[in-house]
Design goal:
It contains 19 helices and 22 strands. Strand 2 and strand 3 form a beta hairpin. Helix 8 runs antiparallel to helix 9, helix 8 packs parallel to helix 13 and helix 15 (538-545) runs antiparallel to helix 16. The longest helix has 84 residues, at 2-85. It comes from Candidatus Lachnoclostridium stercoravium.
Length: 653
């Protein structure tokens, strides 16, 4: 009896040791996961901050360039009006009054006025204002064409404005100063700029005085940037550093506390090529880390789920110490498999083989003969990923007619609000496949995958499974991973689309053109037409009417190309050169469409030279393009030799 009691004691002690080791190991794992989660959160915050700095730089620089372009356009407009005024004998002729009254908003200017000797101002409504004490004709005339800093409006003395002056000269003498009024309160709307979708604030600062010309964070208050010296600055930044940078015309970031928002503002400033102006954009910290906060909440939720899973694991471990079962071991392996699937899907939007491996992993977990993930519509690519036990992995493809009908019925079923579909027999399958189903399908489990907005972005299904009743739950547990894959894929596609688009015309750019020549167009080498288009007269329009008119010409040509051909393969490959690939249309149709394009552009006063090369079987895309280009140059030569170019441009002007 004593020996048996000692044996039981030893076994109990051994079980206690196993339990203690398991508890210690699990506790360490929990601590490591918590520490890793905090580390990931800090890293995400760092990445979001760097993205904020990059975006602030791009948006601020874009705003500065916009203002410079608008100022240049305003200067041209004022000089044209000044040239008209110089033709009149009397500077206060009634016709000039009419000109002032008829002026509509152009660029940054809301109205135009005349400053005359004697410091009198002619403004809209045939009003004459005595501006002595406010404006000096002699001072402004001595400066010539220029833009002032912040001044009071003589029409509304409560309003701050900037004046854009150009002289009106007769017989070598300045007889008046024409100026456009730029109302500072409306300047952000005039330059058509809304940073961070309305979440950011715009500032224009006088680098000499520190005065705010524009401050959308405190609209209507005016103020001075140096007053921010009393505010709390983030570590590594100082008011003196910011003041010196603004004064010296540097481009820098700074982070300081906002008394209005009660949080830090991320602030970036850079000089504009106007006077000593500096433009700046700020964005609240809550906006900067908005994406990070969402990820943080998700990670915290995931951490809580993991902690809950570990609590279940503790209970399972207590039972495992008493009796080792294969069922529990299989569950542990399943968790590892789910984790492997999650890791594979994390960057599957960039490495498509990871999706194949993830589906194969799911097929072995359940097990199933076929696993498919379908992405409906165009938003996420409209593609089908599949794994078949008999055929192996398949690359991303568009679903065939039968598969598209199959997935379409499942989609309608889920759109009605059903959570999952599980059919173990023919009768259940017929509940949604009433007109029949695929012959090799014996059972089917499918779950909808939804995005952050609750919209269905994919369907995950398994066919001919050997698993038990938990198969649907297993698929549902991986919905979040597939949802994140869809989100990453959408973002990846949007970034790729932006990278492939020409900024001016919104057609595909040369980068996309070169890639399609290697990857996509070789699929369409039968019955293919290459259309090489060159815009006639772009150089002359740029020289005589300005690059703005040249840009309008190119955008008009691109728009008509898009309207006429209505296909995917439209490229702007150079300054005034466009290439169109027209598959499956035939040579006659290609010529007909080109004729319509030339006709529509001719009606708008623009002309193009077109080279068409159609081949039934394309042996070399490079040779085909060269042939089309050669024909285009021949057309261009005939156009200019005939003298039509100059006559038509003259008629259009």
């Amino acid at each position: 009896m004593e020996r048996e009691r000692k044996k039981r004691g030893k076994r109990h002690q051994a079980n206690d040791i196993s339990w203690d080791r398991a508890m210690a190991t699990t506790s360490i794992m929990i601590l490591l996961i918590v520490a890793a989660s905090f580390g990931v959160i800090r890293y995400i915050n760092h990445i979001e901050e760097q993205k904020c700095f990059e975006r602030l730089y791009k948006e601020t620089d874009g705003l500065a360039r916009n203002i410079e372009r608008y100022a240049g356009s305003d200067r041209v407009e004022l000089e044209l009006i000044s040239a008209v005024m110089e033709r009149y004998e009397e500077i206060d002729a009634p016709e000039l009054w009419d000109l002032l009254d008829s002026y509509t908003t152009v660029g940054m200017m809301s109205r135009i006025e005349l400053l005359l000797p004697g410091d009198k101002v002619l403004t809209k409504g045939r009003k004459v204002i005595d501006a002595r004490g406010y404006l000096s004709f002699e001072k402004e005339a001595a400066l010539g064409a220029h833009i002032t800093d912040r001044e009071m409006d003589v029409v509304d003395e409560t309003n701050y404005i900037v004046r854009h002056y150009v002289p009106v000269v007769k017989n070598g003498q300045t007889v008046a100063m024409l100026y456009g009024v730029i109302e500072l309160g409306e300047l952000p709307e005039e330059v058509n700029f809304d940073p961070y979708g309305g979440e950011g604030a715009i500032y224009i600062i006088d680098g000499n005085t520190g005065d705010f010309l524009v401050d959308t964070w405190h609209p209507g208050e005016g103020g001075n940037i140096w007053e921010m010296g009393t505010r709390k600055m983030a570590q590594g930044y100082s008011p003196q550093q910011m003041r010196q940078g603004i004064t010296d015309g540097e481009s820098q970031y700074v982070i300081f506390a906002s008394e209005t928002a009660g949080e830090y503002l991320y602030f970036y400033y850079t000089p504009i090529g106007i006077n000593q102006w500096r433009v700046a954009i700020s964005v609240p910290e809550s906006v900067v880390f908005g994406g990070a906060e969402a990820i943080k909440r998700t990670l915290n939720l995931f951490l809580l789920v993991e902690l809950g899973c570990f609590m279940v694991y503790f209970l399972w471990m207590a039972r495992y110490v008493r009796q080792v079962t294969k069922e529990k071991q299989r569950r542990l392996e399943t968790l590892n498999d789910i984790y492997d699937v999650d890791k594979l899907l994390f960057n599957a939007h960039e490495r498509k083989e990871n999706m194949d491996l993830a589906l194969e992993k799911i097929g072995s977990m359940i097990p199933a003969e076929k696993v498919r993930f379908w992405i409906p519509g165009q938003t996420y690519g409209g593609s089908l990923f599949s794994w078949d036990k008999g055929q192996g992995r398949k690359e991303k493809e568009m679903p065939g007619k039968e598969t598209a009908e199959h997935m379409g019925r499942l989609l309608r079923y889920f759109e009605e609000g059903n959570g999952e579909f599980e059919a173990r027999d023919e009768k259940t399958l017929q509940t949604i496949f009433s007109e029949g189903f695929q012959a090799d399908m014996h059972d089917l489990i499918a779950v909808p995958v939804k995005d952050m907005d609750g919209m269905i972005c994919g369907i995950l299904e398994c066919c001919n499974t050997a698993g038990g009743s938990g198969t649907a739950a297993l698929l549902k547990s991986m919905k979040f991973s597939f949802s994140m894959f869809c989100r990453n894929l959408k973002i990846h596609m949007e970034i790729g689309e932006q990278r492939d688009r020409d900024v001016l015309t919104d057609l595909y750019n040369r980068n996309r053109y070169e890639r399609d020549l290697k990857e996509d167009l070789p699929k369409h080498i039968e019955n293919l037409a290459c259309i090489y288009i060159d815009v006639n007269g772009l150089h002359e329009i740029n020289n005589t009417e300005g690059h703005d008119q040249g840009d309008i010409m190119l955008k008009t040509v691109a728009e008509e190309i898009r309207n006429c051909f209505a296909i995917e393969y439209l490229y702007r490959t150079g300054g005034d050169e466009f290439i169109v690939f027209l598959p499956e249309k035939g040579e006659t149709k290609a010529k007909l469409l080109c004729g319509e394009l030339e006709k529509k552009l001719s009606e708008k006063g623009y002309h193009i030279s077109v080279g068409i090369q159609w081949e039934r079987d394309v042996l070399s895309l490079a040779d085909m393009i060269k042939a089309a280009e050669k024909k285009m140059y021949a057309e261009k030569k005939r156009y200019y030799e005939a003298g039509d170019g100059e006559r038509r441009r003259t008629a259009r002007r």
